[in-house]
Structure formats: C-alpha cells, structure tokens
Amino acid sequence: MADAHNGAITANDHGGYFLLGPLHCDNADYLAPRYVEDYPRSRDEATTELLACIRTSVARFRNAVRAADGLVDVHGKVRADQNDLSSHCTWKETPDRAKCDVLEQLGRGWHQLQDFYSHSNWSDQAAPGPVGLADPPGLGRTDVAPFFDIRRYSTMKDADWTRDARARIPVDLTTGCYSDFDSTGVKADDCADRVTHNRALNKDTAASHRSKTDDNFNHATSGATAEITRQWNDFKAELLTAYPDHRRGEQMICALVHDDPQSSCP
C-alpha cells in the first residue's frame, strides 16, 4: 500500500496520472487583492479546481466499497484466491484480486488528500517578510480539512456535497500552479504571475523552500497522517454499515489488514 516506489498510494505519481492536477490537488491557487492586485484566477475558479480534486476521492471511495464485496463470500468467509498477495498487485486499473482492487482504489483516492497538505498553505506558515506570489500566506491550521468528508460525501448527490464542500473552503486557501496539460490545459507558461507549486508552496521534501520555514514540513506530514487515519477509520465504518450480514464487513476489514487473512480471520 505504502511502498515508496510502486505502492497503491504512489500509483498517481506514475504514468499519465502524474500530470492530472486533480489527482494531486494542484492548480487551486488564489491570492486575495489585499496580497496581490488582479490575481489572474478568482476564488471561485480556485475552489472549483479543489472540488475536482475532492471528486476524485469520492469516486475512489465508492469504488473501494464495491470492490470489497469480493474479499469474502456471502457467509463472511475469506476468499483465499481474492486475498492472495504471493504476487504483486499491478496498480493498472484492470481487474485483479479483490484485495488489490480495494487497495488500489484507496491508494488512488488518498494520494491527493496527502498531497493537499504538502501542496497547500493549509497547515503551514509564511516566511517573515512581505506576503505575495513567492511567499503566500499560511493558514497554520492543525485540524484535518473539513471539506475532505469523503465518506459522507460518497452517500450524497454530487450537487449537494459540492455545495457543502464549497462553503467550507477558506478564502485564503491556496495550492500551487503546476503544469497540467493533460487535464485542464495548464502549461508551464500559464503559471506566470501565479502561486507556483515548485517555487512557493510544495513541501514534498524537507529540502524545499517552504519546508524550511517554521516547522512546515512536519506540519504537512502530521496533517497528512491525521487525514489518512480519518479516511481509514471512515472506510472501515462504511464497510460495517454496507455489509452487516454474517459479519462480512468485519471480515473484510480483517482481510485487508492481515497478510494471511485465511488463517488470521477465521
């Protein structure tokens, strides 16, 4: 799931997925007029881009719940063939063992939520000095983002949850502009005069410029960790709700967290 090179959580960083902005919560950039006059993107445009990111996670959550049905039979017994990890999962969005399918959907849905904390100003601080394009304001938030209520959104109509999420996005929230030609047509030159991912905001490594201010790198890591803890707990809760008969939901959870569920989940 979390292998640094080829796990489900990093699948969105491979192939054509890498340049799809919504899969990394990129291009939701905005600065209010009190920081920069005539910023080339409106708050509404930035919010719409962030909603596209959330939408990908909602879809993956729904897919993962459906895929979990294959982990156990109708009586709640673990299906050995569908939980066998003696060979690697491929993460190619092609039908695979149920366990691989669930992990891939979760990984591809969680990647952008983790990226949000390292690609945005949600949990960080600006460096001392003028706030602007090169040094956007930091929100310094320590809570998980309320608009990542993925489980609840997965049960709602898209129009309803987008309205809810839109109302929860702070006016000064920004992520960074990143070349995204395969998705929304953003080219490198389009990031001129905008808050950029590489120069201004990214905290993907402790060596980045923004990471070195305050304790921004650790704040981003802590935020992502708390977020995925929430998402995993919500996913478990949804399995228990969706599959109550014969303790199927419980067995699905057991199968996902054990390498040999056939013996560990009697």
What does this entry look like structurally?
The chain is mostly helical and 266 residues long. Helices cover 42% and strands 0% of the residues. The protein is built from nine helices and no strands. The chain has helices at residues 43-67, 80-83, 98-119, 150-154, 158-168, 197-201, 216-242, 248-257, 261-264. The radius of gyration is 20 Å and the shape is elongated.
Any descriptors?
266 residues, mainly alpha
Summarize the structure in short.
This protein has 9 helices and no strands. The chain is mostly helical and 266 residues long.
Topology (elements, then pairings):
Layout lengths: L42 H25 L12 H4 L14 H22 L30 H5 L3 H11 L28 H5 L14 H27 L5 H10 L3 H4 L2
Helix pairs in contact: 1-3, 1-5, 3-7, 7-8
Largest sheet geometry = none
Instruction: Write down how many β-strands occur, each being a DSSP E stretch of 2 or more residues.
Output: 0
The string of secondary-structure elements, in order, is HHHHHHHHH
Assembly classification: single chain
Which regions are unreliable across 5 or more consecutive residues at pLDDT < 50? none
Shape: elongated
Q: Write down the Rg.
A: 20 Å
